[in-house]
Amino acid sequence: MSNTFYGSIHAFRGIAIATIVAAHTWAFLIFWTGKVDSPSINWVYAITETLFHGSTLYFALISGLLFSLVLQHKGWRRFASSKVKFVLLPYCVFTLLCTWLYWDFTRQASPEAEPLPTVLAGLVQGSASVQLWYIPLLFGLFVLTPLLVWLQQRGPWMLLVIGVLPLCISRSAFPDLLSWQTLVYFAGAYALGMLWGAHYLRVIRWLQRFQWQLLGLVLLTSGAVGWSYLQGHTQEGFWFYRQSLIYVQKLAAAALLLGWLESRAQSLVWARRLGDYAFAIFFLHVLVLDRFYFGVYDWLMTNRTGLTLAWLGLFNLAWTLLGSLALAWLIRTIGGRYSRMLVGV
């Protein structure tokens, strides 16, 4: 893989982690202090959810891309060992850390809770912190990878079929984030990433011919998603039209961004820096976000308006990204070559 398109994917990973953090910064401020109970707050919620909800799809797409471009050529043993050392170990570390940090809250919610069963449940369910649900799901994608490779070898169209399944099978709604539907939903993006990675430059050149059409698709689906939030529509059953729209929106945005980044990634220093620390930021950002939330909670409870939540969310986003980046850098500096097994960087 050449440095040029590795740089574009790396910069895209930086943008992806910023959007994942952004999805939490406003949602936490809104729902940890109340609910969507005014028109102005509804607008803030609708806009931020339209822009950022579902951004974890970017990570699934990137994982598929990098498997085809890099990991597939290193063999299954290397693939498995890298996931154990650099995904599973940091996940175990953070599950233990978050269980300890949030133990008082756990006992308040469930007085009969015991440490060991709580840790084990956290590992299986990704429930030790709100963002960790994605790691068990990611391991589900890793387990499916040999099957997806087998299907790809028998016909690329098979991965295309898997890639369109999320249009009729939606991820399950919060708080029950882990389910067979969610696995199918993210497997679609992962499979498309694998297929794209097998023909990366050819697909990029093709997508660059349709940038305006992709932009139109992003805007059209974003408008429909935003309207559904403003109307207060909620999910019932295994299919919800908004999740299908978000799937199309995020994949179209990814295609647009990767095509644009192909010739611009080297100039986006901030995106490449976030890309360097993306996995560590994923693990750390909720801990940093918590500090901000507890610091402003009392004041926000008496000044809770849409405008206040809007600008406070921007400040929260900057604080969380910079704080997570600084903390990850510190751990990397102290931990040296072991830091990747501790924090993913």
Automatic annotation (TrEMBL):
Residues annotated as transmembrane: 12-32, 52-72, 84-103, 132-150, 157-174, 180-198, 210-230, 245-262, 274-294, 309-331
Claim: rRNA-binding is one of the keywords in the record: no
Main location: membrane
Top-level lineage group: Bacteria
GO cellular component, one term: plasma membrane
InterPro entries according to UniProt: Acyl_transf_3_dom
GO biological process, one term: enterobacterial common antigen biosynthetic process
Topology in the lipid bilayer: Multi-pass membrane protein
Cell location: Cell membrane
Domain Acyltransferase intervals: 8-329
PANTHER family: O-ACETYLTRANSFERASE WECH
Name assigned to this protein: Acyltransferase 3
